[in-house]
Please model this.
Amino acid sequence: MEKGPKVVVQPPDSRGLRAISVGGTTVGSAWSLRGLRKVLRSVGHPKDLDVRDRRFVQWRGGGSEVWPDRTWRRRIGGGFLVIGLLGSMVLLAVIGIPDAFGALTFAQRMAGFAFVLFGAVEGVAALAALDFRGKRRFRYTGAVVLLGVLIALATHSLLLFMWFQEREYTPYLLMYLPLWFWSVWALQALVREGAWKGLPHPQRFAAGVAATALLATVNLAYSAVYQPSATPVLLRLTARFGKPVHDPVRPIVHLPVRLHAKNIGKVAARVINDEYSLYGYAAEFTAKRKGGLKERREALEFGEDVSLHTGVSDARTLGAGRFVGPGSWFEPGDEHTKERVLHLPEDAGYDWLEVAFGMEIMRMDRGRIDEEFYVPHHSWKKEEGTLHCLPEVCGDTLIHRGRLRHNNNVLNVTRRPVYVTASWTLDPEWSYTHTFLSSSPDFTPEDEAAAAAADKESAREIERYGIFYTHTSAVTPFRALLAPRAKRG
Model:
């Protein structure tokens, strides 16, 4: 070493790291004297080299006692940065994977894959953060970390914006709200450290990040808002009576009834509730004018038409049933037919018959239901020691209950859980269905005010999930069924 020192320790940089060169070639860097000895051993210097001997080691910007690195502060800051990136990776994967592999539309799947891709970038950025907060052996780790933080800030800001629209509590809020504050802190720290330095074209990098964020936002808005609203659900229902057949032995009329449903639109439809009912009507008739003020008001109160010669009609349920059942669905072009035969005595005394057929439908591009919804519960049976509805309150009722989920998983993490209850009740006079949506799986109103608030909430959720009721009916005079018998007599 007569020619002078071959080991040069450079001045500390802004973080306290000192570069080390041997013979003019940089061989490493160190945070401490111990790190310096480790680097020197790796290039062949003896363990007992006296680093304080200026004949062998040249110190610039401070001697062997100058190591300004704050180890714990650096490690805690680096760990905080890595934890935030990993947390963002997990959250984005949780949001994106269900849509990427289970969404019904192409746009929704693309939105899901975008979140999965963003989550992968967060994972890569977490690995890059280890080097960026360390000795920065790789040139572009700072830019990769900056990209990860920008994606985190953009996605968590989007989640918070969507949450503020409704301000409903969801457990996911405890993830993306702290992560939003973390991303603001991380961005400020990276800007102070000049994380973009070393990029050949930093302006293009910024433009690429902005374009990616804009594309993801537009795709999300299209898949979550525009597409599920622009295309209507077209489910056509028909109900009709067939040709009556007189029993050759008994005084009975066999009346066929045909029900048919077909999806003539482009959007798949899921059945939330369905029912058909067969009614027999008998009305008081008089040749004199019957439609006075009293009768007119009675008809209006019962939701019936006002008739000049008849009063309010008495109705009786002759038969009722399900068509396809809750949870079934119709893809575009799907159709289903159900036929049954109504048996009536010839002297039943009805004036006319009616078949009523209706469904409550949810568009499948807006939501889905958990599998528990497919299992019916009975109001008169205890399940695990609990009645789903007291018989004296609900009567004889079949109940289907399950968790509703938006098809776009971003909405699931920014909205509170919603549960749907679909009931079908049979009583001696009428059969009817009722669909109720609530944020509680077992909601029972305590008073009228709570019931009114629950009904308002249910109406809002029904509109949000695109649930609507469609129905049809057919009528026939009862006397027309007896006409063939009269001709044979």
About this structure: The first helix runs from residue 33 to 42. The chain is about 40% helix and 25% strand. Residues 31 and 107 are 50 Å apart (CA to CA).
